[in-house]
Design goal:
Elements (H helix, E strand, L loop, with lengths): L3 H16 L1 H4 L8 H23 L9 E4 L15 E7 L6 E6 L3 E9 L11 E6 L10 E6 L7 E8 L9 E6 L10 H21 L28 E2 L3 E2 L12 E9 L4 E7 L6 E7 L17 E3 L11 E6 L8 E3 L5 E9 L9 E6 L9
Parallel strand pairs: 15-16
Antiparallel strand pairs: 1-2, 2-7, 3-6, 3-8, 4-5, 4-7, 9-11, 10-11, 11-17, 12-15, 12-18, 13-14, 13-17
Helix pairs in contact: 1-4, 3-4
């Protein structure tokens, strides 16, 4: 007798077995051994997230699970950064939920509801958002609110940005369903459907990554990337910043403006990146590998891969200069590519009063890179 869940499990294994072709073969094949290894790490990390999102949830018995954190090495994927905690909870749009917790030392937090066009398909729309500024937070940092019963809501995503994740207290989240739960059904058909949804979600992830890094040329020619964020296809520059709309792909942050770029560096070269932050609640810039993953906040000063609006040292005119090299320099806003010859870069600004200007980038010899603010 063949069970449907048996067939679905074997389909999932076959899908996972083929996904490394996205970074081994074709025009998106990575070019160095470390990125090959990163591809397999990303496979492992996103498989875990796929199970959390599709195999194990009980919407009538909700529970927030970690999607990205500054410290868990198995939750660095899909646009992670060293300053934020993201938690996810699949929900039933016909149910009502109460969310409570404590803000800790967060400088920005929110809960966003996303749709799911079909089982395992990535969200293409923000259906609701509750920001910290919408809540009554008491003197001790506690909050409690009922998340609205929202048609098409399939998953809730929390965001918690910290000025200093090494010392800051993250938001504490609790969620409960306000309606009686349905009986638990972990049967053959339910499990098969969940496994197939997980496989669909994974295939889309690896249709996006690895990200391109472009060529070292001065023009803007390059193939369009059909999925994911808007990124520059010429190395050592950023794409124009943009505000995320309600209709977007994946679990993008509605409150954010983004600008993405890439780098190609020799050992004796540096990227000098300058931008003027607009008034906003939070901003940072993160160095990624081609799988939109970085090292965490706890890896030490020799592995500093991000800078934010609280840690950055400003120039006298209010602008920020960041120096990226394959190692580290003495500049106070020095970031490292950890020896990687190429990779990707991400700026984000939360609740900005205006879309920021495009960050300026200069490729210079390491000996010519600035060593201090000006």
């Amino acid at each position: 007798m063949t069970h449907e869940s048996t067939e679905a499990w074997r389909e999932l294994l076959a899908a996972v077995g083929d996904l490394d072709r996205s970074f081994l073969d074709g025009d998106r094949a990575v070019t160095d051994d470390r990125h090959v290894a990163d591809g397999y790490r990303t496979l492992a990390a996103t498989l875990g997230v796929a199970f959390d999102a599709y195999l194990f949830p009980e919407p009538g018995r909700p529970h927030f699970v970690a999607v990205n954190t500054p410290f868990r090495r198995d939750r660095r994927w899909g646009g992670d950064n060293t300053d934020a905690y993201y938690f996810m909870c699949p929900v039933d749009p016909k149910r009502r939920y109460r969310i409570s917790g404590n803000k800790g030392d967060s400088v920005y937090f929110s809960v966003t509801a996303y749709n799911e066009p079909s089982p395992g398909a990535w969200s293409d729309r923000v259906v609701a958002i509750v920001r910290d500024s919408d809540l009554d937070v008491d003197a001790d940092g506690n909050f409690c609110f009922e998340f609205p019963c929202t048609p098409d809501a399939a998953v809730l995503m929390t965001r918690d940005y910290q000025a200093d994740p090494l010392s800051g207290r993250p938001v504490v989240w609790h969620i409960e369903a306000l309606d009686e739960p349905e009986p638990i059904r972990h049967g053959d058909a339910e499990t098969a459907a969940s496994l197939r949804a997980a496989a669909t979600w994974l295939r889309t992830m690896f249709a996006i990554v690895p990200l391109p890094v472009g060529n070292r040329v001065s023009d803007k020619d390059g193939a369009e990337h059909a999925l994911g964020h808007e990124t520059a296809h010429t190395a050592n520059q950023f794409a124009d910043p943009y505000q995320v709309p309600d209709a977007n792909f994946g679990w993008s942050a509605r409150d954010a403006c983004y600008s993405y770029g890439s780098f190609v560096l020799e050992d004796d070269e540096a990227l000098v990146i300058t931008h003027r932050p607009p008034p906003c609640r939070f901003w940072n810039m993160v160095v990624w590998n081609q799988f939109m993953a970085t090292f965490g906040a706890s890896e030490g000063p020799d592995a500093r891969c991000s800078v934010n609006g609280h840690s950055a040292v400003l120039n006298s005119d209010g602008s920020v200069t960041i120096v990226l090299t394959r190692g580290m320099t003495s500049h106070p806003n020095s970031l490292t590519a950890l020896g990687y010859p190429r990779g990707n870069l991400a700026f984000r600004w939360f609740l900005a009063e205006e879309v920021p200007a495009r960050p300026e980038v200069r490729l210079v010899k390491l000996s010519e890179a600035p060593t201090d603010v000006h």
